[in-house]
Amino acid sequence: MLHLSRFPALGALLIGALMLPVGYVIAQGAGELTEQVGERNELDAEGGEDAAPFFEEVELPPVKYDRFNTATLRALDKITGRSTDIDVRVDQPIVFGSLRVTLKSCHQTPPELPPESAAFLEVDSVQATQASTASETAEVEGDRLFTGWMFASSPGLSALEHPVYDIWTIRCTTSAPSTGASGG
């Protein structure tokens, strides 16, 4: 690696070479540059042939999303490395490990469009504690960890930040979810 501190003359030469264009523009033609910009603005105002727009607005058709009542999510336990696909119905929370996942809405593009699924999820932390009877357990409400849309095509765009679990959207479906979706 070349260290300029060992070669002060070389460093001064390089810095001088880099500064030459800046100094040249400042000394040579600040006035000329202003005149050229002024001429360009006059051409644009007159609608001359140089007045092409910088960008062209394109009207895109609205994307239609179909609404579904079930979402397939993939949950990863980072400790064990085990991933599990979970089917969640709208407004029917499921528990995965220490997380309670509630699906509020799931939308997917029709088959003729590029595939995209989006699910609006609420993820809370829950803790199982012993109730007054030894055989009963109760869930204690924890903190809200995530609220928002998760997109199947871009899982990192809006992700759950949790030290043990990752959850992301796979697809929206209309089928009934499988039973026993708690793990961990």
Give an overview in words:
There is one protein chain. By secondary structure, the chain is of the alpha+beta class. The chain folds into two domains: 59 residues, no CATH class; 108 residues, no CATH class. The chain is built from one helix and eight strands. Strands 1, 4, 5, 6 and 7 form a five-stranded antiparallel sheet that branches. The C terminus is likely disordered.
Brief digest:
With 184 residues, the protein is of the alpha+beta class. The chain has one helix at residues 8-46; strands spanning 66-68, 70-77, 82-89, 94-96, 99-108, 117-130, 137-151, 165-173.
- Proportion in β-strands: 35-45%
Query: Helices and strands, in N-to-C order?
Result: HEEEEEEEE
Question: Sheet bearing the most strands, described?
Answer: 5 strands, antiparallel
Per the principal axes of the C-alpha atoms, what is the gross shape? elongated
| Mean pLDDT over all positions | 74
Q: From the alpha-carbon coordinates, what is the Rg to the nearest angstrom?
A: 30 Å
The N- to C-terminal Cα distance equals 51 Å
Number of domains: 2
SS class = alpha+beta
Number of strands: 8
Low-pLDDT sequence parts: 10-38, 130-137, 177-184
Instruction: Compute the number of helices.
Output: 1
- Share of helical residues: 10-25%
Element layout with pairings:
Blueprint: H1 8-46, E1 66-68, E2 70-77, E3 82-89, E4 94-96, E5 99-108, E6 117-130, E7 137-151, E8 165-173
Antiparallel strand pairs: 1-5, 2-3, 2-8, 4-5, 5-6, 6-7
